[in-house]
Amino acid sequence: MLDTPKANRLHIAIFGRRNAGKSSLINALTGQDAALVSPMPGTTTDPVFKAMELLPIGPVVFIDTAGIDDQGELGELRVERTLRVMDRTDLALLVVSPPAGDLSMEREWLEGLKGRGIPVVGVCNKVDVGGMDLGGLEGELGIRFVPVSARTGEGIEFLKEAIQEAVPEGWERDTIVGDLLSPGQVVLLVAPQDIQAPKGRLILPQVQVMRDLLDHRCVGVMATAGELGVSLEFFRRGGGYPDLVITDSQVFHIVKEKLPPEVPLTSFSILMARYKGDLKTLVDGARAVMSLKDGDRVLIAEACTHHPLKGDIGREKLPQVIREMSGAELGFDVVAGNDFPRELRGYSLVVHCGGCMLNRKHMMSRIMRARSHGVPMTNYGVLLALRSGILDRAVGMLLPSG
Ligand SMILES: Nc1nc2c(ncn2[C@@H]2O[C@H](COP(=O)(O)OP(=O)(O)O)[C@@H](O)[C@H]2O)c(=O)[nH]1
Ligand code: SF4
Ligand SMILES: [Mg+2]
Fold first, then answer.
1. Which ligand is nearest to the CA of 359?
2. pLDDT tens digits, one per residue of 203-216
3. Into how many domains does the chain fold?
């Protein structure tokens, strides 16, 4: 992801007066100490663009608008600079910290941002020192403010959730696997031996992966598990192995047996979990199943409303799997469609469906809500990968180790 070109990163501009805590906030959000010491008086006060990873949202560029609140003879220059920043902003944070005092500058920024249709997340910083009337602030400026402390980290997960919810449509991760490959690399896709429904077609993840490979000028070769030997023989004649193998989870074990451990191997469902959500959160969530205790409640969430079928995965199969894996007596709630609860804190785990009908933004909002409530979250595919013992290998090349 570090290779994401700057232009493809979400640009988050941070507006706030000097000392509101803009630089500290960048550090708190990214967990890095990379932000910028306040500029010395007299040096340039041009906005600083910093490409960073905002986990788990993804690659972003923070625009630190240091010095943009300068008054006086710099007035005209300030307006000019502000406009230049706003032209490049996808999402804005408006930071206020005590004592709030006169809010004319904040109002001016807010008007400019709203006029451009840029979503704004209000941040009330330095809650550790107190002295801020949050309701009054929200009333004055007409937007919601998330109370945080960049110093102690309080509220930072809630702020990430608010940022994720404000991310404009269209800012979805737009690659499934192509970002891991270079043009010209060859990928072997493996389907189960007896390809099931739908007749005469491939299923959506297979089609999407193939399209993504082509978009990234990679070569996709596809076979069923039955023809795996022949396919690998084909590669061997060329002197090697595929650069990556992506298999259906059902035949993961067969594929794994035939591939040397150094050949990268993953599954369609793991790639889709990464594409739709945050793979690390989902993998950690799956592992949290092992620490469930008697009496814990688990939320199972499906994005579609359909009649529960007998043996339905969400209502019967999955609770059984989770009971077996954890060895605990658990309570289950199942929700479907838009009924994903606002409050998740009563749960010890959330298991979501693959979310093929949700866009990434929607799925990420749900993941961020679970994170800010401190509740582990996983999905069916990742959980089943853990149970069948394929998770470690399947996520090996997709997650930084550790
Ligand atoms: N108590 C407290 N101090 C903070 C907090 N955030 C920033 N500060 C302090 O406020 C001052 C200005 O912070 P800085 O990030 O440089 O503000 P900027 O000018 O908006 O970039 C520094 O002394 C920070 O240590 C916070 O959450 N709580
Ligand atoms: S996995 Fe897809 S089809 Fe199934 S409930 Fe979730 S969104 Fe709907
Ligand atoms: Mg600063």
1. 2
2. 888 999 999 999 99
3. 3
